[in-house]
Automatic annotation (TrEMBL):
MF terms in GO: efflux transmembrane transporter activity
Signal peptide (UniProt feature, chain positions): none
Protein name: Transporter
Organism: Poseidonibacter ostreae
Cited InterPro entries: MdtP/NodT-like (IPR010131)
Length: 456
């Protein structure tokens, strides 16, 4: 009875001490918040920089492509007599300079310029979608690392309790008045070993997620990678992400309304601009049925005749053009190709919208089920488990319960806390996925508000 009373006192003291130790440890850490990680990742993303260069290149090309082809100049001596190469011998002999200029086919230059401008207009939407996707990806990695970190913290808090259980059980077993059995000690030691192994696995998971995060925290200087954050640590507080269009979570919204909303998403806007650009290709193909015109002019200088009389110089002016007659295997096929490309891009938009709708439905179901689980754990399961822990400890203290029940209840309590943590983290992860679908810019995806769980 004495040892069992001592067990209760030891567990209470150990639990209080472990919590204070954990708080002290966390406050002294160098913390890298979710917002900091995301911002650094966006700053250091070389894809975004390359995308800007690609846009500038196409914008520059859209200016140059609207210019006419350079005129061609020809200079030559015509009809020189081969018997003496005397410039004045024959009347047909002349020095000739000519200029020719080809004009674009129909409105092809204007259409090409508009097509490139539309293509360049895709890039800002591509960058915004890239930022949104990268924000979601880095946030998922950060939350996974956070989950591992806090699970380790919860287990470490309970290590003190199990160590005290072993100490008290061993003391009770070594005395004649104690009722602890050897199997009680072995059971407690086994659970302690399992917890140590679980900590090792969680540390491995945390390191894996942090290493994936660190990939995006490289900075580029003179072509070399300079890594600034070699030892990442995360804050103890779980971010509470604000949900965009929260009203859609608890309402029956139809697919057409969703498509209208998702049509403003950067990824869909990018495809819209792509459709406009490809549609210009159809117009460009139709222009190839029109003739292409060119003009040419030349001036021929003739020398004096053998009697010293001057000869008239010669001026030539002409127009050239082609006639697209054999169109079956050329222009017709080019137009058909352009039309099929346009249909393909329109199908791409439909496919992307369908993915958004499916992702919305899946994420919505996940959030509703997680909301239910959160409520069950918070209002029922956790309080019931805490009562069970108190009851088993009281029963054991009064010689009415087994030591194994005390250990089992503590393990159940620890697992419930870890499960509760997992639920909270999964809620935030799904809210991020939800926000990605509705966000028109990356900043909206991880805005934080209120207390934990209040956004559902």
């Amino acid at each position: 009875m004495i040892y069992r009373s001592l067990l209760v006192t030891s567990l209470l003291i150990s639990s209080s001490f472990s919590l204070e130790l954990d708080k002290l440890d966390i406050t002294n850490q160098n913390k890298l918040t979710l917002e900091q990680v995301v911002n650094l990742s966006l700053i250091n993303d070389s894809w975004i920089i390359g995308n800007k260069y690609a846009q500038e290149a196409i914008e520059s090309n859209s200016i140059s492509i609207a210019s006419y082809a350079d005129p061609k100049i020809t200079i030559g001596a015509l009809n020189l007599p081969t018997d003496g190469f005397d410039f004045n011998q024959e009347g047909m002999t002349q020095l000739k300079i000519g200029v020719s200029q080809m004009f674009p086919r129909g409105d092809s230059l204007e259409i090409k310029q508009e097509q490139l401008k539309l293509k360049a207009s895709q890039f800002p939407y591509q960058r915004e979608d890239r930022k949104s996707k990268l924000t979601a990806k880095i946030s998922q990695l950060w939350l996974n690392a956070y989950k591992a970190q806090e699970s380790i913290s919860l287990i470490k808090n309970n290590l003190f309790l199990f160590e005290r259980l072993i100490d008290v059980a061993e003391s009770s077993y070594s005395t004649t008045i104690g009722r602890s059995k050897q199997q009680d000690i072995i059971r407690a030691q086994l659970e302690l070993t399992k917890l140590d192994d679980k900590i090792t696995v969680l540390k491995q998971n945390k390191d894996e997620f942090l290493s994936k995060i660190s990939e995006w925290l490289y900075t580029f200087s003179d072509g070399e990678n300079v890594f600034k954050y070699s030892n990442l640590t995360l804050p103890k507080e779980l971010p509470n992400i604000k949900m965009i269009n929260k009203a859609t979570l608890n309402s029956n919204i139809n697919s057409q309304t969703l498509i209208t909303i998702f049509s403003e998403h950067p990824s869909i806007k990018n495809i819209d601009q792509k459709i406009k650009s490809v549609s210009k290709g159809v117009l460009l193909s139709k222009e190839k049925y029109k003739p292409q015109f060119g003009v040419n002019t030349s001036y021929g200088y003739r020398g004096d005749d053998l009697m010293g009389k001057s000869r008239s110089d010669l001026l030539s002016i002409g127009v050239s053009f082609d006639i697209p007659i054999f169109t079956k295997n050329k222009q017709d096929k080019e137009l058909q190709t352009a039309i099929l490309n346009l249909k393909s891009v329109k199908t791409e938009k439909f496919t992307q919208l369908r993915k958004h709708v499916a992702s919305f439905e899946n994420t919505k179901v996940n959030l509703l089920r997680l909301k239910d689980r959160y409520s069950i754990y918070k209002n029922k399961l956790i309080p019931q488990i805490n009562e069970e822990v108190e009851a088993t400890l009281t029963a054991y203290t009064n010689d009415e319960g087994d030591f194994a029940d005390v250990v089992r209840s503590r393990i159940t309590q620890l697992n419930a806390k870890i499960d509760m943590l997992n639920i909270n983290v999964e809620i935030q992860k799904n809210i991020i996925n939800y926000n990605y679908l509705f966000a028109t810019n990356a900043e909206e995806i991880i805005n934080t508000v209120g207390k934990e769980g209040s956004n559902l």
